Prior knowledge:
This protein is mostly helical. It is 76% helix and 0% strand. Helix 3 packs across helix 9, helix 6 (77-94) runs antiparallel to helix 9 (120-148) and helix 13 crosses helix 14.
Amino acid sequence: xxxxxxxxxxxxxxxxxxxxxxxxxxxxxxxxxxxxxxxxxxxxxxxxxxxxxxxxxxxxxxxxxxxxxxxxxxxxxxxxxxxxxxxxxxxxxxxxxxxxxxxxxxxxxxxxxxxxxxxxxxxxxxxxxxxxxxxxxxxxxxxxxxxxxxxxxxxxxxxxxxxxxxxxxxxxxxxxxxxxxxxxxxxxxxxxxxxxxxxxxxxxxxxxxxxxxxxxxxxxxxxxxxxxxxxxxxxxxxxxxxxxxxxxxxxxxxxxxxxxxxxxxxxxxxxxxxxx
Length: 276
């Protein structure tokens, strides 16, 4: 069965690179469409996932804005924090995405996908694309709440498109990382435990709610190796008035694309193992 599953791949490669790209894109979009249909059947998931970031803005942000304990220069703390909370929403939603793969295995869906002639990396990237589109729903909600709270957002077209691109990439990165964890853990109980362990360290070891300059030296090193740091950095420059990128937007996006590429390649190797 596995040899049959790769016949389509070999045929596409034999016809030339362009044909392989077309087949890869078709497979990727087909997987993304299937995943998004699940979301359309239950759109309440987008709103329930938004409760936690909204509470962070309404409670945590309001308290720390009054305390003035975190130096943010000329920018108000709520303005500084809002891009970080959007990144947090992306992280918390995407990091548990891998549990769907375990459900698919238990229902027999995964085995059917693996014997298809689709590229393994297209199956993984298709899921990442669907997770990115889910993240766009979170973005709309955070924007609405931020406007109600009087956050100074940039409403110009290009910055908004940049925010959407950054959210797509960030969601894809962390959902693919989640898929890798699911391939290794293989059970829902182990996966949920690891997911809980990973989310808070990733969030707090970033510049989401305080500048990197405040961190001790060892944590600065960790933060600079954390993809969430670069997502927040890009969002802060694109999303709020007076925001700027510490690393540069080009660097931020390059890190996200590089991380996504590596994670997709790793996940494509591990993906068949979750069905074992």
